[in-house]
Amino acid sequence: QVHVVESGGGLVQPGGSLRLSCAASGTIVSRNTMGWYRQGSGKQLEVVALIASGGSTNYADSVQGRFTIFRDNANNTVYLQMNNLKPEDTADYYCTVVGSGVWGTGTQVTVSS
User: Fold this and answer.
1) Cα distance between residue 40 and residue 25, in whole Å
2) Each residue of 45-87: pLDDT tens digit?
């Protein structure tokens, strides 16, 4: 069975940084397109960042230049480095093996002073 588990969320002040982790089991992250999505309170689920098996990346316009998605093949983990966080980044963040239907339970990020 394929599982992904997110971690690394928390409370951070505006302008701060967090790094989210997505540890995968039952599949190899480098052979899949992996994605980070988020859902804020009262908002729809939206894509944040994607990394394809070949290593190409895509970002939502709202996070371009502030967030970086990357993977550690040795640890079979995908990360989301989030810098210059803004209050509007507050959301539950989810990791997925794109197209598989496999999602983690999410990690909460709160950006507030």
Assistant:
1) 27
2) 999 999 999 999 999 999 999 999 999 999 999 999 999 999 9
Identity of the amino acid at 108: Q
pLDDT, residue 76, reads 97
Nearest-5° Cα angle at 61, 46 to 102: 30
CB atoms within 10 A of CB 103: 16
User: Rounded to whole angstroms, what are the CA distances from 75 to 26, 48, 80, 90?
Assistant: 13, 22, 15, 27
Q: Which residue has the tokens 């990357």?
A: 70
SS3 99: coil
CB atoms within 10 A of CB 23: 17
